[in-house]
Amino acid sequence: MSVHATRRLVLQWTLRNATCPVLNLTTILGSDNVRQQGFMTCRLLCSTHNQTSTLHQHTDLSQLQLQPGRELSIRAVLDMGFTDTQADQLLEAANKGRGGQSEHASSTLMALFVLGLNPSSVLKVLEKCPELFYVKGTQLQQRMDNLRRLGLLEGSLQRVVSHYPQILTLPLRRVNTVARFLREKCAFTVQQATDIIRDSPAVVQDDLGQLEYKFQYTYFRMGVKQAEMVKSKLFRVTLEEVRCRHSFLERRGLYQTPDKKGQTLIVNPKLKDILAVAEETYLADIAMATQEEFKVFQMLMAREWQEEDEEQERDMGADSDDDDEEEDEDEEDMKSGYRQRRKK
Fold it and tell me: For bias kind Acidic residues, which ranges apply (predicted)?
């Protein structure tokens, strides 16, 4: 293991387990002087060189200028373990948006390193989501801690951040609202809700009305239970794609909605075989149809949905004219919610 990797691991372990205020991450990210002292202390702990080398490292570290409000320099980025090319790319990304380099750029880098990401991963994350340069390091840490409380442990958390770093730009309330929605409105277990956020992190930005309709369509119309939804990674697929692939099979006589006892006259394909495969595989192995047939069906479905939307808008306009009619929202259940047309 390289010296840089060893330092990062020890830094991560120390910051998470230390009770000393100097090494408390929130303090380090929030206070200029203490943060620099804590970071220097960790590097000194990780050093395997002699006293002269240690003093040299101490001098180098003081030149990193990892302080809010001060711009990152090429030397500072190189000392973090980035290559020359990576350093150029990072500084270019940091200086690209919102009128120049953010005052939070250094604390953002530190928070991502403490998470356990290596320089290559940090660069990819920030290229995918340069908005992270403008998030305070303390906010990033709070959001990471919140994801841990939701069940994303080490390994899973790093994969989620690497795959979908936008999740760290969202307020805690938004992420928690979606997690609670999955548990309360869609009846997923705590572990299932965690698995959904881990496998489909973009779900945290989905419209809740569309999210509920997708769940209810799959549950009532297709007869699929929660466990199979999680395994098939349902929430990676758009509602239109779910409806289109399901309806195509249904109209070809290859899928049937189960009755109240969960029984069908035919054997329905598994949800993962419908959704979690490429379109070519779906058509060849499940629908047994050509690309041309499916394209024509998609156009017909789009026209049909547009007509339904227009009809719904007319109905809503007529309902709004009736001032004497009142709705009792407390009596709505999941199935009645499903019967309502999806909201745009």
Answer: 306-333
Q: Give dist(CA 229, CA 217) in Å, integer.
A: 12
Placement of tokens 């149809």 in the chain: 289
Residue-level pLDDT at 100: 60
Single-letter code of the amino acid located at 228:
E
Q: Could you give the C-alpha distances from 27 to 19, 24, 80, 136, in angstroms and in order?
A: 11, 5, 20, 13
Give dist(CA 201, CA 117) in Å, integer.
18
The token duo for 241 is: 């794609």
Residue 23 has what pLDDT?
40
pLDDT tens digits along 50-96: 333 333 333 343 334 444 445 677 888 888 889 999 989 988 888 87
Residue 273, token pair as written in the block? 């075989």
pLDDT at 274: 97
Average pLDDT rounded to a whole number, residues 256-283? 95
Q: How far is Cα 267 from Cα 269, in angstroms, rounded to an integer?
A: 7
Amino acid identity, position 271: L
Nearest-angstrom CA–CA distance, 89 and 111? 19
Q: Is the pLDDT assigned to residue 308 strictly greater than 70? A: yes
CA distance 219 to 212: 10
Backbone phi, psi, residue 289, to 5°: -140, 170
What's the CA gap between 269 and 170, in Å, rounded? 37
What number of residues does the chain have?
344
Cβ 154 vs Cβ 160: under 8 Å: no
Q: Which of 255 and 75 is assigned the larger pLDDT?
A: 255
CA angle 217, 331, 260 (to 5 degrees): 45
CB 186 within 8 A of CB 145: no
CA distance 116 to 124: 14
Nearest-angstrom CA–CA distance, 226 and 159: 24
